[in-house]
Amino acid sequence: MNLAELRAKLDGVKKNIRNLQKLAKNEKRDLTDDENTKLDELLTEAEDLKTEITEKAEEEERAATAKRDREERLRKLGGESRGGGGTSFRGPELETEQERANDPVENPDATQYSFYRALECLAEKRSLDGYEGEISQEIAHRSGRKPSGFYMPTTLPAQREAYVGGREFRAGELDTTAGATMIVHNTRQTLIDFLRNETCLFQLGAQSLTGLVGELDIPKETNAGSTYWVGELTDVGKDTAAFGEVQLRTKTIGGYAEISRKMRNQTSIDLQLFSMRRLMTNIAIGIDKAGLNGSGNSGQPLGLMQNSNVPKVVIGSNGGALTWAKVVEHETLVSVANAASGRLAYLTSARGRGHMKVTEKSNTTGQYLWQTQSVPSSDGMVNGYRAMASNQVPTNLTKGTNTNNLTALIFGDFSQLLFGFWSGIDVTVDALTKSKQGTLIVSALQDLDAACLRDNAFAICSEIDTGVAAS
Q: Is residue 232 part of a domain?
């Protein structure tokens, strides 16, 4: 019922109370036992309705306030944006493709956004305003968390075209969402960058939740319950279903980069994207690595490989070479747990992939554990499933006397890995430490956690000896 209906119902209950009292008064008598019982019921109903009306009124007031606030923010932010025509700032409740396309948090305009300008504002202890300030404020509002410096958008396209050999090329997009492949396609110049590990978990289907506020507990069923066959006049047995929780708790990862005086003086979009990419790529790689092999201690999430509840494939007391039987055992363990569905794939290291490419399923068959795809990439096929290799998977594992020399193979439904993010990328600036050089030390922080929704959706072998000595 809405607020008007609740108030009308309360008025009716009050009227019944007055009529009951009026009847006894006109007859100059006390209420009978039945009338007292009825009066008690009416009074209880009236009290419950008053409580419900108060809660409903507060709820409607909160909704009206939120609506007014949202409309005011949209009006102000849209009216102040540069470029004419205004910009529509999208709240979390807006879902259409057009709204997403017009949302500067998800699709910022590279021609308006200046990463270096934002850094200079912080270095000079000025408030961040303009287009950069609008985006930071909007991210803060959506996350409910104030930044230590400023929030930067995690996706910034380079709106630039070039002509090579008479053909038009459009620059690619720098996507710094955690775990994404981060490449700037530059047709005019080459920016030398460090060779980094290829992130893997999001490519294989890991999920993410953004905009979290406070602690998050996700309920999950830990067994399927029971059913019973019963005879005539026989009670059905008790349901044995049980429930647990997957917990996400705030953890923080950070990185920093140095921006020289000469770089600060540049207005090139490419160079600004390069500076942002250095920060974001390191953070994304760190997030990916923690989801895979985080210790669960010292502020790290508990990674998949460190999760003792994930089923293990055992080779021997000191590890050993991988065999076809052990590869298939991964799938068997997941299937036995009724978890062989979703984004199923194998994941190993580059060293593990090399080992599997030269290891036959059976002697003299010419069929190898790893099947190469027709298109060169890090992907292949193993046991009929997609397979990927990444140096995020460690190659210095130990089993028995075989120390710091083993690698791992993982199989499972990677959509059962969940990353939760509490805020945008929080950027702070230190202009003092290297002030004599004119260099800014830029730090970026991200609040997040990672969890495995179903442990038995995976199987891991962490004792593969590839026959290559540890470096």
A: no
24 shares its domain with 113: no
As a whole number of angstroms, the distance between CA 96 and CA 105 comes to: 15
389 and 453 together in one domain: yes
Same domain, 324 and 261: yes
Q: Beta strands of 238-363 (E only): which ranges?
A: 243-248, 251-259, 344-348
Asked if 467 and 355 touch (Cβ cutoff 8 Å), the reply is yes
CA 85/CA 79 separation, integer angstroms: 8
Annotate 191-243 with DSSP letters as a single string: ------PPP-TTTTT-EEE-S--S-EEEEEESS--------TT-PPPPP---E
The four Cα atoms 277, 445, 443, 125 give a dihedral, to 10 degrees, of 120
Instruction: Report helix angle 33-80 to 130-143, nearest 10.
Output: 160
Report yes or no on 95 lying in a domain: no
Q: Which domain holds residue 199?
A: 107-223+238-471
Q: DSSP string of 65-113?
A: HHHHHHHHHHHHHHHH-SSSS--PPPPTT---HHHHHT-TTTS--TTT-
Q: Looking at the structure, tell me whether residues 73 and 117 fall in a common domain.
A: no
99 bridge partner residues: none
pLDDT in tens, 276-296: 777 888 888 999 999 999 999
Over residues 345-383, the pLDDT tens digits come to 999 999 999 999 999 999 888 899 999 875 555 589 999
Overall number of domains in the chain: 2
Do 158 and 110 meet the contact criterion of CB atoms below 8 Å apart? yes
Which H/E stretch holds residue 167?
Answer: strand 167-170
pLDDT at 116 over 70: yes
Average of per-residue pLDDT values in the chain:
80
* 349, 352, 353, 359 alpha-carbon torsion, rounded to 10°: -170
The CA distance from 277 to 283, in Å, is 10
Does residue 180 lie in a domain region? yes
Tell me the pairing of strands 425-430 and 379-382.
unpaired
